[in-house]
Amino acid sequence: MRNFRIIFGATVAVLVIAVAVFAPYIAPHDPDEQNLCEGLSLPRSGHLLGQDKLGRDQLSRLVYGARVSVIVGLSTVFISATIGIFVGALAGFFRGVMDQVLMRIVDILMAFPGILLAIALTAVLGPSLRNIILALSILGWIGYSRLVRGQVLVEREKEYVQAAMALGAKSGRIIWRHLLINTSGPVIVQATFGIALAILAEASLSFLGLGAPGIPSWGAMLNEGTSFLFTAPFLSIFPGLAIMVTVLGFNFLGDGLRRLLSPKEDVSRI
């Protein structure tokens, strides 16, 4: 079961990223090309997933929508992980006043609902891809900081760190060359789950009309399809399936990596 999760999750992740990278070569039509005479046409040869109310090819828009999901997912995780690792490493290694100040800031930010704050920031700053990434990253780093802090507190007391301190190694070298490397496993697992959450959050914002204007996205396609649930349900079914499979794939990948990197957990269950 563990291998199945990793294989399935990795396959979905690779396919989604490949579709996003090679979208211009995979999409059979221009995603913005309109044909009003064929609006709401059912799936058929030439338009395998049908056409929306403006006659735009659904498959092409779905392919280009993968780009938005991948860009938001990877960018949000990269920014959040970078800030969170830096804050968590400082708090866990130096402890004392620095730890108290940084963790109290984290506690305050945790009081804000993530998706509501993202909606508010996107509404104030304006709908765009950059603002979505910024809104999701403002609170996205909190989980990484707490995770890294806990790992660093444990690793800091081990013999190899104490030996490096006794030899006069600088704090920056110890953190970078020793602590962060030995805490990278949980961070990778957290990042995998973070990509799924960012993709789902972007789809939610786009569904509410706060996505990047003029760019095909799965959430916006899902929103457009809600007006035709009885006459053209395929407009909502295919974007919904794309979101579900992608999020499920990254979650499976993260869960598989977590079990793979924590063999003690599997042994305890036997």
Helices, strands, pairings?
Elements lengths: L1 H20 L1 H4 L31 H37 L1 H15 L3 H12 L3 H28 L2 H8 L4 H12 L1 H24 L10 H8 L8 H28 L1 H7 L1
Helix pairs in contact: 1-3, 1-11, 3-4, 3-6, 3-8, 3-9, 4-6, 5-6, 6-9, 7-8, 9-10, 9-11, 10-11
What is the fourth-level CATH superfamily?
Answer: MetI-like
Characterize the biggest β-sheet.
none
Portion in beta strands? under 5%
Radius of gyration: 22 Å
Total domain modules: 1
CATH topology: MetI-like fold
Question: Briefly, what CATH class?
Answer: Mainly Alpha
Q: How are helices and strands ordered from N to C?
A: HHHHHHHHHHHH
Share of helical residues: over 70%
Q: Count of helices? A: 12
CATH architectural category = Orthogonal Bundle
**Are there runs of 5+ residues with pLDDT below 50, and where?**
265-270
Commentary on this structure:
- It is a single chain.
- The chain has helices spanning 2-21, 23-26, 58-94, 96-110, 114-125, 129-156, 159-166, 171-182, 184-207, 218-225, 234-261, 263-269.
- It is mainly alpha-helical and 270 residues long.
- α7 (159-166) runs antiparallel to α8.
- The longest helix has 37 residues, at 58-94.
- It has twelve helices and no strands.
- The protein has one domain (2-12, 48-269): MetI-like (MetI-like fold, Orthogonal Bundle).
- The two termini are 14 Å apart.
What are the salient characteristics of this protein?
270 residues; mainly alpha
Short description:
The protein has helices at residues 2-21, 23-26, 58-94, 96-110, 114-125, 129-156, 159-166, 171-182, 184-207, 218-225, 234-261, 263-269. With 270 residues, it is mainly alpha-helical.
